[in-house]
């Protein structure tokens, strides 16, 4: 997709990168933007879209000029339905919203040094060393899950494996009680919480349902935190409930705890779930690779290639703090940027033959699926551990994995921030 001819059908004058059809299949649009308008004003989002790898790296490293205090940009995105709602619906929704604890900015939407103060509280949970210690536990979760479907021969891979494995692991790491009622509620509520970051428009009923789950999840998590203040255990909620915010010599308050936990719900399961799905789809479309992933290094390369080709976080905003230019493009203080990691990961200036899967690629690890710099995803070591253990475990039990054609081609959910597969129906032979 490196020639101009192949992207000639993309017209920059009419391009809306955030139309559902483009979000599902953005690659031609990304190519056109990288070549002809690497910083591009998208009126539909009132944001300047950045698509080229070198420009994204520049923005991610310059936190003084390009701020992560974009919480208001995301916060306003879920309320479009109110424009067409009745007065009664608006009143009901806004009344329900009053029950919410408003999470303050903590890690994702702060800059150093405030960002560092919060991140340091939880860094130790996700260090490479601590994640390595979790390997036997993670392997057991993977093996137990495979055992539930290995005799079936045909499954929805998302429902059978990609969703439950990361969600169970992050639930255990957070410290969610393991009773069936508590876990069932947490799994549903966490799914709603992650879906909010997709910025997919909702109707009134969908928005009200998501709001109610968000309220109930907040009460649920604060209840656990209150218990852990008295009886701490070895989990994330205990760490946050008993932590001291050193910058102000005080314990974390409930809104801060909620804010941090909400971010881990996405970082800890949604991105890993998506990558499992996209990786399995790549295996189905590249069957020769299924028999090649017997070497740990090739497995790691395959995981990095999956992250590169189908970044589970396609992009995040930044706010310009002062007049500047980016690659010769003039920006003013207050301008909003929308960084597109998915576009940068297929930049041929950085990756040779960028649209192809190459498990022998030497620089796959420089992909930006987990961001870069101070905001590099804190859960990346855990996600990689799950993925690097999961794929060889699956291939050790399954062979001749292929798409179940009776369900048609799998299609991405149109989403501005996250990129996921709602369903992935496959068939396989037991090895």
Any chance you could write out the topology, listing elements then pairs?
Blueprint: H1 20-24, H2 27-36, E1 39-42, E2 47-50, H3 53-61, E3 66-67, H4 71-75, H5 87-97, H6 114-122, H7 128-133, H8 135-147, E4 154-156, H9 157-162, H10 164-174, H11 180-195, H12 204-230, H13 236-242, E5 244-245, E6 250-251, H14 254-285, H15 287-290, H16 296-309, E7 315-320, E8 324-326, E9 329-331, E10 336-340, H17 341-344, H18 380-397, E11 398-403, E12 425-430
Helix pairs in contact: 5-12, 8-10, 8-18, 10-14, 11-12, 11-14, 12-13, 12-14, 14-16, 14-18, 16-18
Helix content: 40-55%
- Extract low-pLDDT stretches: 1-5
Number of domains: 1
Quaternary structure classification: single chain
Describe this protein's structure.
With 431 residues, this protein is an alpha+beta fold. The protein has a single domain, classed as Cytochrome p450 (Orthogonal Bundle). Helix content is 48%, strand content 11%. It contains 18 helices and twelve strands. A five-stranded mixed β-sheet has the order 1-2-10-7-3. The radius of gyration is 22 Å and the shape is globular. The two termini are 37 Å apart. The model is unreliable at 1-5 (pLDDT under 50).
């Amino acid at each position: 997709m490196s020639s101009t001819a192949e992207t000639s059908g993309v017209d920059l004058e009419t391009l809306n990168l955030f139309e559902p059809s483009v979000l599902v299949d953005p690659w031609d649009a990304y190519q056109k933007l990288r070549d002809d308008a690497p910083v591009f004003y998208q009126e539909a989002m009132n944001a300047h879209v950045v698509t080229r790898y070198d420009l994204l790296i520049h923005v991610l490293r310059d936190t003084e000029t390009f701020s992560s205090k974009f919480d208001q940009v995301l916060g306003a995105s879920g309320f479009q339905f109110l424009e067409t709602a009745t007065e009664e619906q608006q009143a009901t929704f806004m009344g329900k919203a009053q029950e919410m604890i408003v999470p303050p900015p903590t890690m994702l939407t702060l800059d150093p040094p405030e960002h560092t103060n919060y991140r340091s509280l939880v860094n130790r949970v996700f260090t490479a060393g601590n994640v390595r210690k979790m390997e036997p536990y993670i392997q057991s979760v993977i093996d137990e899950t495979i055992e539930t479907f290995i005799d079936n021969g045909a499954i929805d891979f998302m429902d059978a494996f990609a969703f439950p494995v990361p969600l169970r692991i992050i639930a255990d790491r957070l410290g969610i009680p393991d009773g069936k009622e508590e876990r069932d509620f947490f799994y549903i509520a966490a799914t709603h919480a992650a879906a909010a970051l997709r910025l997919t428009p909702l109707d009134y009923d969908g928005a009200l349902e998501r709001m109610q789950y968000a309220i109930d999840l907040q009460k649920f998590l604060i209840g656990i935190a209150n218990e852990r203040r008295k009886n701490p255990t070895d989990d994330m909620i205990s760490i946050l409930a008993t932590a001291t915010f050193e910058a102000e010599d005080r314990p974390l308050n409930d809104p801060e705890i909620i804010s941090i936990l909400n971010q881990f719900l996405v970082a800890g399961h949604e991105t890993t779930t998506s990558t499992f799905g996209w990786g399995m789809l790549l295996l189905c479309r590249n069957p020769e690779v299924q028999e090649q992933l017997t070497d740990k290094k090739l497995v790691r390369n395959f995981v990095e290639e999956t992250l590169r080709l189908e970044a589970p976080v396609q992009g995040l905003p930044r706010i310009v703090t002062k007049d500047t230019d980016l690659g010769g493009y003039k920006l003013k203080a207050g301008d909003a940027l929308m960084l597109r990691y998915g576009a940068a990961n297929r930049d041929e200036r950085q990756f040779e033959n960028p649209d192809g899967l190459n498990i022998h690629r030497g620089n796959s690890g420089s992909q930006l699926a987990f961001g870069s710099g101070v905001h590099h995803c804190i859960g990346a070591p855990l996600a990689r551990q799950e993925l690097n253990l999961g794929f060889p475990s699956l291939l050790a039990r399954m062979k001749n994995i292929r798409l179940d054609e009776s369900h048609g081609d799998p299609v991405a959910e149109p989403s501005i921030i996250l990129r996921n597969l709602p369903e992935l129906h496959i068939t396989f032979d037991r090895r």
